């Protein structure tokens, strides 16, 4: 078994939501470089088209297509599913990456911040996956299952609000939903796993990662002393979506530089 065999995605078709920026963009490039045909969708169709053009200019076996797609409503999801079916008869990989956040101090956090965030981050993940199940079931087999990769967050693993209460709760829900779907879909030759990223450079984290100085400051508080890089996401995606990850389901990969195992001081520190 060669590395190429383990991680090649030649002949596979993938859909990456929110694939024009940040972690979605990193994942889309990794899948294209591994030989997949990658459909990139987000609310900003022009941005998706631009990214697809950039990826198609790379010297790879894969290809990319960008178009508009909104997972924030039933109507948006129905339209996205219809567009996917219009473009391809097969779907091997679904990456649920689209997400929104909302920040406000405790005591000022508005009610509407829950409806918007949970609608995209949780209901959107579930409904899109549910409506694409026939395509995923058709492409999966015991030897080579179809793959679903959900994007959670380290903030969904540990009690960290940081003013993003609905976001953190939504990502905890994504992680739990991942495990539920992994259990229920294993009999249909579909694996369901999740990434739980820490700080990466993205539009969502621009307030903290927009320049080198900010990235260094944020990275200084990460146990592994840096923010995430493109290869960190790429490595996870190639493992989970390639042949080497075909026996893994229900896993949550903590791509967070160790934040997921941070804890308080040793309670006996002063006594020692």
From TrEMBL:
InterPro entries: NAD(P)-bd_dom_sf, Sc_DH/Rdtase_CS, SDR_fam, Sec_Metab_Biosynth_SDR. Coiled coil: none annotated. Keywords: NADP, Oxidoreductase. The keyword NADP applies. Signal peptide: none annotated. The keyword Oxidoreductase applies. Pfam families: adh_short. One of its GO terms (molecular function) is oxidoreductase activity. Belongs to the short-chain dehydrogenases/reductases (SDR) family. PANTHER family: 7-ALPHA-HYDROXYSTEROID DEHYDROGENASE, 7ALPHA-HYDROXYSTEROID DEHYDROGENASE. This is NAD(P)-dependent dehydrogenase, short-chain alcohol dehydrogenase family. It comes from Ruegeria marina.
């Amino acid at each position: 078994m060669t590395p190429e065999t383990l991680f090649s995605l030649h002949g596979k078709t993938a859909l990456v939501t929110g694939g024009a920026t940040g972690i979605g963009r990193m994942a889309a490039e990794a899948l294209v470089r591994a030989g997949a045909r990658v459909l990139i969708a987000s609310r900003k169709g022009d941005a998706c088209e631009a990214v697809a053009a950039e990826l198609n200019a790379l010297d790879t076996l894969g290809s990319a297509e960008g178009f508009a797609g909104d997972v924030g409503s039933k109507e948006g999801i129905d339209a996205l599913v219809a567009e996917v079916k219009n473009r391809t008869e097969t779907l091997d990989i679904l990456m649920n990456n689209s997400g929104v956040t909302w920040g406000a101090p405790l005591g000022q956090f508005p009610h509407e911040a829950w409806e918007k965030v949970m609608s995209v981050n949780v209901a959107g993940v579930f409904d899109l996956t549910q409506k694409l199940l026939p395509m995923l079931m058709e492409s999966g087999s015991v030897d080579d299952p179809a793959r679903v990769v959900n994007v959670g967050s380290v903030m969904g693993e540990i009690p960290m609000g940081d003013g993003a209460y609905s976001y953190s709760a939504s990502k905890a829900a994504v992680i739990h939903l991942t495990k539920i779907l992994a259990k229920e879909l294993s009999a249909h030759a579909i694996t369901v796993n999740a990434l739980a990223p820490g700080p990466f450079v993205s539009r969502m984290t621009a307030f903290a990662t927009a320049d080198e100085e900010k990235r260094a400051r944020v990275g200084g508080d990460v146990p592994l002393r840096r923010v995430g890089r493109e290869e960190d996401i790429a490595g996870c995606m190639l493992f989970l979506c390639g042949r080497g990850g075909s026996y893994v389901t229900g896993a949550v990969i903590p791509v967070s530089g160790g934040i997921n195992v941070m804890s308080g001081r040793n309670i006996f520190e002063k006594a020692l």
